[in-house]
Amino acid sequence: MNWKKLYMLLNNVLILSCNCVLVGGSLATLVTGICRTAFELDDRYVMYWLWFPIMILSSIWVIAYLPQPLRKMGMLSDNLDSYGPWIKK
Fold first, then answer.
1. Backbone dihedral angles phi then psi of residue 33, each to the nearest 5 degrees
2. What is the DSSP secondary-structure string of 7-42?
3. Are the beta carbons of 66 and 19 closer than 8 angstroms?
4. Contact, 53 vs 24, CB < 8 A?
């Protein structure tokens, strides 16, 4: 594996994992905040039984369905020709 392919792999993994944490964490925080307010639940109960499972499930969902829109936007690529000028030299 040469450095260009390694760079592409690390770039794709980093972009997907950052988006996974961002979307999963935001969704889990929103849902747990609504449940805490609506049902007046304890913080420990909400974190263990709502936040963690929602974070894990939404992260799996993001990993499964987000790469295609990210490829359409140009954030993920499997082609060396679509990267910037630093990779073409």
1. -65, -40
2. HHHHHHHHHHHHHHHHHHHHHHHHHHHHHHHHH---
3. yes
4. no
Least Cα distance to 48 among 67, 65, 28 occurs for 28
Average confidence (pLDDT) over 82-87: 58
SS3 5: helix
- The residue among 70 and 50 whose pLDDT is bigger is 50
- Amino acid, single-letter form, for residue 51: W
CA–CA separation, 58 vs 29, rounded Å? 11
pLDDT digits (tens, 9 = 90+) for 13-61: 888 888 889 999 999 999 999 988 898 888 888 888 989 999 999 888 8
The Cα 33–Cα 51 span in angstroms is 9
